[in-house]
Amino acid sequence: MLMLKCKTCGEVFPGLYVPEGSTVSFKSTATNNDPSHACSRGHKNEYITEDYLDWS
Q: CA geometry: angle at 32 spanning 43 and 28, to 5°?
């Protein structure tokens, strides 16, 4: 699971499910596919690959 930290309020929330054993190339492609995410408080931010936290 790749997590994101809201750039507005700091809430950590699930950003993207990545299957176990996925390659770095797959993760990079998946995280660049849809850069816009919203936390549960409704803050919408754009994220790049480096913003994702790997908590698997």
A: 125
The pTM (predicted TM-score) of the whole model is 0.81
E strands along 1-56, which residues? 2-5, 12-16, 36-38, 44-46, 53-54
In whole angstroms, give the CA distance from residue 21 to residue 36. 25
Q: Quick check: 50 and 14 in contact, CB under 8 A?
A: no
Decide if 7 contacts 13 (C-beta within 8 A).
no
d(CA 37, CA 14): 10
Q: What average pLDDT does the structure give for the chain?
A: 92
CA distance 52 to 2: 6
